[in-house]
C-alpha cells in the first residue's frame, strides 16, 4: 500500500481532479442523507436496524462509503491521499466502537480527533523543518518553501479551530443539528477559508515547468 507522498502531482491526479473531489466528499454526503432518511432506509432494508438508530445507520453507511472511496482511489489514482486515508482510519475505528457499544460519543468525537490530529501534525512538522501541507495539496499547486511554511501555519491553526468548533456543536445541540453542521457548516467554512488563502498561494506559486527549463 502506498500513500500520496510526493509534492509533485501525479498524472492521475491531474487527469481526475473531479473524481478526487467526489471520493473525498461523497462519504460525507452519504452520512448526511443517511442520517436524514434513517427510518426510511431501515424500512426498505430491515437488516440496517441491527446497527441501531439513524445516527448509527448513517455511520455504518459512512464507513462503507469511506472504505469504497479509498479502494477506488487506490485503483484509479494509484495511491491513497493522506488526509482521506488518516480520516478513514479514524472513521472505521471510532465508527465501529460507536456501533458496537451503541455510544454516539465515539462518532461525534471523530471530527474532533481528526482535526486536532491534522492541526498538531502540521504545526509539529514545522518544528522539524517539514511542511507537511505540500503532501496534502500536491495536486492543486506548488509553492516556494516560505509559501508552504505560511500556509501550513494557517491550516494548522484552522484545523485546531475546527476541532474546538465540533466540540462546541455536538455538546450543545441536537444530533440533527450536529450532522447538518458537519456537512453544511464545516464545508462552507472550509471553502471560505481556502479561498481566503488564494492571495498567499498566488504570491508564492512556482512554475515547475518554467523552473525546469531554467
Short description:
It is a multi-pass membrane protein. The chain has 214 residues and is mainly alpha-helical. It has helices spanning 11-15, 17-36, 38-44, 54-77, 82-101, 104-108, 110-127, 133-136, 145-172, 175-196, 198-204, 208-213.
Structure description:
It is a single chain. The chain is mainly alpha-helical and 214 residues long. It folds into two domains: 1-102, no CATH class; 103-207, no CATH class. The protein is built from twelve helices and no strands. It starts with 10 loop residues before the first helix and ends with a helix. 30% of the residues are buried. The chain crosses the membrane at residues 18-34, 55-76, 82-101, 113-133, 153-169, 181-202. This is Inner membrane-spanning protein YciB. Keywords: Cell inner membrane, Cell membrane, Membrane, Transmembrane, Transmembrane helix. It is found in: Cell inner membrane.
Could you give the topology of this structure?
Blueprint: H1 11-15, H2 17-36, H3 38-44, H4 54-77, H5 82-101, H6 104-108, H7 110-127, H8 133-136, H9 145-172, H10 175-196, H11 198-204, H12 208-213
Subcellular location: Cell inner membrane
Organism: Rhizobium phaseoli
Function: Plays a role in cell envelope biogenesis, maintenance of cell envelope integrity and membrane homeostasis.
On the 0-100 scale, what is the average pLDDT?
A: 81
Structural class: mainly alpha
Distance between the termini: 36 Å
Q: Calculate Rg over CA atoms.
A: 19 Å
Could you tell me the strand content as a percent range?
Answer: under 5%
Number of domains in the coordinates?
2
What is the makeup of the main sheet? none
Query: What is the number of helical segments per DSSP (H or I, 4+ residues)?
Result: 12
From the spread of the alpha carbons, the general shape counts as globular
**Strand count:** 0
Helix content: over 70%
Outline the low-pLDDT stretches.
1-9, 210-214
Order of helices and strands: HHHHHHHHHHHH
Amino acid at each position: 500500500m502506498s500513500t500520496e507522498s510526493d509534492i509533485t502531482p501525479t498524472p492521475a491526479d491531474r487527469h481526475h481532479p473531479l473524481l478526487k473531489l467526489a471520493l473525498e466528499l461523497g462519504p460525507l454526503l452519504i452520512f448526511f442523507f443517511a442520517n436524514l432518511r434513517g427510518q426510511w432506509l431501515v424500512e426498505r432494508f430491515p437488516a440496517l436496524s441491527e446497527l441501531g438508530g439513524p445516527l448509527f445507520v448513517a455511520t455504518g453507511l459512512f464507513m462503507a462509503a469511506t472504505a469504497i472511496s479509498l479502494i477506488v482511489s487506490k485503483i484509479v489514482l494509484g495511491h491513497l491521499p493522506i488526509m482521506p486515508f488518516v480520516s478513514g482510519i479514524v472513521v472505521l475505528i471510532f465508527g465501529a466502537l460507536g456501533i458496537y457499544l451503541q455510544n454516539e460519543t465515539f462518532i461525534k468525537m471523530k471530527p474532533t480527533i481528526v482535526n486536532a490530529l491534522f492541526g498538531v501534525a502540521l504545526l509539529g512538522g514545522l518544528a522539524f523543518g517539514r511542511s507537511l501541507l505540500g503532501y496534502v495539496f500536491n495536486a492543486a499547486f506548488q509553492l516556494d518553501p516560505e509559501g508552504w511554511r505560511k500556509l501550513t501555519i494557517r491550516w494548522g491553526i484552522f484545523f485546531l479551530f475546527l476541532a474546538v468548533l465540533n466540540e462546541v456543536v455536538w455538546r450543545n445541540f441536537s444530533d440533527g443539528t450536529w450532522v447538518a453542521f458537519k456537512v453544511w457548516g464545516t464545508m462552507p467554512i472550509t471553502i471560505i477559508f481556502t479561498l481566503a488563502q488564494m492571495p498567499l498561494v498566488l504570491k508564492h506559486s512556482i512554475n515547475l515547468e518554467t523552473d525546469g527549463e531554467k
